[in-house]
Each structure stands twice: as structure tokens, then as C-alpha cells.
Amino acid sequence: MDRTEKRAFVASLAEVFADTSFVLVAQNKGMTVAGVSDLRRKMRAAGATYKVAKNRLANLALDGTSFQGISPLLKGPTALAWSKDPVAVAKTAVEFAKTNDKFVILGGSLGSQVLDVNGIKALAELPSLETLRAQLLGLIQTPATRIAGILQAPGGQVARVLAAYAKKDEAA
């Protein structure tokens, strides 16, 4: 890489750090090209981006962002993954780390909060953003359904009482 390419890379990475809410740092020492391609494919499917970056350039891009706390993690062959949905990145990385022992999660940052490996695993256990939205929608719809049922019940009871009186009058 020449200097202009390095400046462009640092600028693009700084722009990414400004737009995202979560960055994961992992070590990919000894991974094969096929393994990295598989991981990139899985990350892309989850709506995330996975990029191997030079530590010095990544540190330059981190300066002045809320993710500065992950700078000590950038040692050795590291890679960064990010997404607007932090749970998707964490889930994909943790699942991939279970099957590939050469992919090691070092930590990450959720905004200015630095997370260690256990924090990343805890984040991966949370439901995804889409699942949370569906659950919230279900919670919102449930009371409305119950209210509609409760409001209809007295009207139905009144109708049944009137029908019973009508049958009583017809029988008499």
C-alpha cells in the first residue's frame, strides 16, 4: 500500500467507526482463505462487515471515535467486524469461533463500552433486533386483542339475556 491508499483506508475506516454502533476485534492467525471467505459470507448474510486491517492503520482510524478503548486489543493478526445490529455480529462470530479454533474473539466495543470475550458471548445470547421487534409488536397487539374481547363480552351477554327473555315470552 502506498501513502494515498493508506490515507484512503484510514479515512474509510474512520467513517465506518463514526456510523456504526458495535465493533468486534478477533484474531485470525492461521486461518485458511476458505475459512476467511466462509466467515465473510456468514457476516455478510447477517448484515455485517468483516475486514482484516493493519493494526497501525486501524489505530489511526480509531483516534477520536468512541471505539478508542479497543486499541489495546489490536496486537498480532487481527480483524474487525462491525454492523448496525450488534447482536448479529456477535452471534455470527461466536458461532464461527465454535467451529474454527483458529478464529479467536478478543473483545469489542459497544459504543464507548469496551467488552471482553464474555461480554461478546453474552451479547450473542440476546435475541436479534428483528426478534425483539416481533416480540414487542406481539406485546403491543396482545392487550388490544384482550381489550376488544372484553368490550365485546358485555354486549354479547346483554344479547343473550334479551334472547332468553324473548324465548321466555314466546313460550308463555
Automatic annotation (TrEMBL):
Gene Ontology CC: ribonucleoprotein complex; ribosome
InterPro entries listed in its UniProt record: Ribosomal_uL10 (IPR001790), Ribosomal_uL10-like_sf (IPR043141), Ribosomal_uL10_bac (IPR022973), Ribosomal_uL10_bac_type (IPR047865)
Gene Ontology terms describing biological process: translation
Molecular-function GO term, any one: large ribosomal subunit rRNA binding
Keywords: Ribonucleoprotein, Ribosomal protein, RNA-binding, rRNA-binding
Pfam family, one: Ribosomal_L10
Keyword RNA-binding: yes
Matches recorded under NCBIfam families: PRK00099.1-1 (NF000955)
Function noted in UniProt: Forms part of the ribosomal stalk, playing a central role in the interaction of the ribosome with GTP-bound translation factors.
The family this protein is said to belong to: Belongs to the universal ribosomal protein uL10 family.
Subunit structure and binding partners: Part of the ribosomal stalk of the 50S ribosomal subunit. The N-terminus interacts with L11 and the large rRNA to form the base of the stalk. The C-terminus forms an elongated spine to which L12 dimers bind in a sequential fashion forming a multimeric L10(L12)X complex.
Protein name: Large ribosomal subunit protein uL10
Gene name for this UniProt entry: rplJ
